[in-house]
Amino acid sequence: MKVPFVDLHRQYKNIQSEIDRAVSTVIEETTFIGGRFVNEFEVEFSKAYSVNHTISCGNGTDSLYIILKMLGVGSGDEVLTVANSWISSSETITQTGARVVFVDAHPEYYSIDETQLQKKLTPKTKAVVAVHLQGQVCEMDIITAFCKKNELYLIEDCAQSHFSEYKGKKVGLFGIAASFSFYPGKNLGAYGDAGCMITNDDALATKLCMYARHGALKKHQHQMEGVNSRMDSLQAAILLAKLPHIHQWNDQRIAHAARYQQGLSGIKQISLPKVRPHTKHTFHLYVIRAQQRDMLAEFLRLKGIETSVHYPTPLPFLPAYQYLHHVADDFPVASRLQYEILSLPMFPELTREEIDYTVACIQDFYSNNPA
Ligand SMILES: Cc1ncc(COP(=O)(O)O)c(C=O)c1O
Predict the structure, then answer these.
(1) Which CATH number characterizes residue 341's domain?
(2) Quick one: what percent of the chain has pLDDT higher than 90?
(3) What is the pLDDT of residue 370?
(4) For residue 71, what are the domain limits?
(5) Residue 107 CA neighbour count, 13 Å, CB half
(6) Please, are residues 264 and 257 in contact by the beta-carbon 8 Å criterion?
């Protein structure tokens, strides 16, 4: 049996007529940039998210950068974010001219460790970028209170957590603004690059929109220099077709996680993902911690099962951040995780048989390699 890590083709086949109709309508209308599909997506995403403003843009990285930039984050400022994420969460901070300050991962939930924020605070701290990694939700009561008390902007990176919830409230609605990626493999994925920003702040929404469109809200009326970051109409039409399915797809991911949990829970050489209490984890990724991780991954590969590591090197230890001179002891949790984490196949259309086969292979591996 072959078990792919992600299979976008299965999803396409399930909704082929909706996608094909969306794509052919855009091509028939030849509205490739801007126009009704993009506007409609912004309206529908705002409705689905119960937020006042959705501003579409080119990708999730741009959405973070534009938010930080339009909040006035820049030279002389420090911004806190988590040590284990995709580099977009930190490079966008640096690109504004600010300094990124990494915070270790939580030992149980792997998102930013809220108990470490205080010791990273300095008079220069201006914002926190909370990344809801893997679909897991950060500890929002504590992070929100920390930001409020210290007058910091809270920005949520929701690239991996569309419609995850904390105490019944959707992630992305806790801070001043939130960023989303619609990279194809995300829980809600386009057929190319796409992203968006959401906010309830009217003045900020205007600025975000303006900056993403060359500093102009109306053609040729550039109030400032900006960037060109647009969601193209094909992506908007595809996302519009996919949006009504997102809750079902998230529920399927959650059911798959439960099946993995049931099958794997007796194996003492691995730890399974824990869901933070009072939250809805949407399992963008299903990440276990495994003894002999690399041997296990190779064994699974030989059995036809694709796995991945998110992420093999914590951000502070990438060559890009050598200038910060960090050592492993600065981030003991992230440092340990890098050798243990393994992402198992996870996508809505994964079958029970594929999960059971993966579970059986993992059991098989540890019965032959118990130490
Ligand atoms: C946590 C996180 N933030 C930001 C991004 C950036 O999104 P994009 O690839 O759309 O630029 C990603 C994408 O993988 C991500 O996982």
Answers:
(1) 3.90.1150.10
(2) 99
(3) 86
(4) 8-244
(5) 3
(6) no
